[in-house]
């Protein structure tokens, strides 16, 4: 019996950013056109978390005004379009990376730091981002992309604030990436 | 007559919840695939944006925004998409800015944003798993602490507030301006890449100039075709709505109106479209005076749409003519739950006028008041808010508070 080794497809370069942008824009347009909703991510994470909290400490969820809005009483926080949409994101990402030869187990990092340092800062950055995304009522997808395309004033203010925050801190953490 | 459905579609009602959720999952898959193709599953690509070496993030984001924006407003311009039913992230100005700054910091340190981390984790990026763990921690911390700064976080609310409304420019002009701003950003991005990333501009495909030209042309088309006014929107729904008017499905009797005024489970908005002088003489309690011009009525639309789902809007005039016209504008613009006071204020006063309000003894036109008021005391008359206990009124209830027509919790709801 011969064993067949699964050989990944040869790695292909990422798409030209303008072309990828048009592709992403078409997906965004299709979402708005068909459903009236744009794209989103962080709201889905919030709902999954609220669901877990509601399983463990339902009383706490019911008495916290913010969480009760998602999972108070008999509300099912997972029962909203953004949750299936978020579930689709990693599936689509996986399929796309597999067929482009880019499914690679690795840690993306700058050359000057260890893998463990990168993991630590990925966690810290993720925590800051998670907090900020809820503060802003949306993330790069839900606010910047979706709100930007339908010309929401708040989304554009958010977008410039996000770039400003990123550039303001970039010099201090330059060792992470350079 | 069959009226062609206009996007967006009520897919949860049409397809059933599970099929609709399946469709959302497919959209999510396409979203994840587009992010992966863009190179957003590899954190150094994303962080490079903040060191001006590789401006991939800005290029992809702004190209996606102008692509979707142009298609949305061209579709709306030719009447196949109802922009009023498209979810627009409500503006909470300063909370959004503060949250944006915090997110930018997290972006540079963590190397992902929430959507890209979900994609990256599925393509083998181990750092994305740590990022996701951090993100759930941050989301948790927000939920536990938001009560401490709730006043700020719930403040600065401006509702559905769009750039054309802010700049007082037509939508088409704003679309063209955003395209031009994006092109300037792309030019600057390529300049930075050359200076800090050593990118030779000659290696970039020339086709991008063609793309830029296409966008400018589409932007000009958006300016030329404009956006539909309330008349065009009315034309699309006039068959159905004229029937509702003729069958008197939306004219509520004084009895139901009085019940609504006493119902504290429903938010009631009363729009009085008579001239201000008549309003000053007498008006219903809690009513607001609005100039009867179509423009003044339209200016109220976005405010009315930001009301909670259980809101009824009632238009009133002396007769029904002006109130019906205001009703048409509001309904065409997609305001939910709008009604007309049946018989107008004349009909109202036939029932409720006290001794200080006398009927006139000479004939008047339908749209004039049939009553004389002792003094201009506005809503201090007993007829402004009659005692519901003192009357027993029969009426056929017509108010049905439909769910909001637009998506309620879009974006990252």
Mind sketching the topology for me?
The complex is a heterodimer of chains A (178) and B (413).
Chain A: H1 17-35, H2 42-56, H3 58-63, H4 65-71, H5 82-99, H6 115-135, H7 140-149, H8 153-170, H9 174-177
Helix pairs in contact in A: 2-5, 7-8
Chain B: H1 11-15, H2 17-37, H3 43-47, H4 56-77, E1 91-92, H5 93-110, H6 114-121, H7 126-145, H8 150-153, E2 157-159, H9 163-167, H10 171-197, H11 207-225, H12 230-246, E3 251-252, H13 254-261, E4 267-272, H14 276-281, E5 287-289, H15 294-298, H16 301-305, E6 311-316, H17 321-332, E7 338-341, H18 344-352, E8 357-359, E9 371-373
Parallel strand pairs in B: 3-7, 4-5, 4-6, 6-7
Antiparallel strand pairs in B: 1-2, 8-9
Helix pairs in contact in B: 2-6, 4-10, 4-11, 6-7, 10-11, 12-17
Describe this structure in words.
The complex is a heterodimer of chains A (178) and B (413). Chain A has 178 residues and is mainly α. Helices cover 66% and strands 0% of the residues of chain A. Chain A is built from 9 helices and no strands. Chain A is globular. The N and C termini of chain A lie far apart (49 Å). The model of chain A has no long low-confidence stretch (mean pLDDT 91). Chain B is built from 18 helices and 9 strands. The longest helix of chain B has 27 residues. In chain B, the strands form 3 sheets. A 5-stranded parallel sheet of chain B has the order 3-7-6-4-5. The radius of gyration of chain B is 27 Å and the shape is elongated. The two termini of chain B are 37 Å apart. In chain B, strand 6, helix 17 and strand 7 form a beta-alpha-beta unit. The C terminus of chain B is likely disordered. Chain B is α/β, with parallel strands linked by helices and 413 residues long.
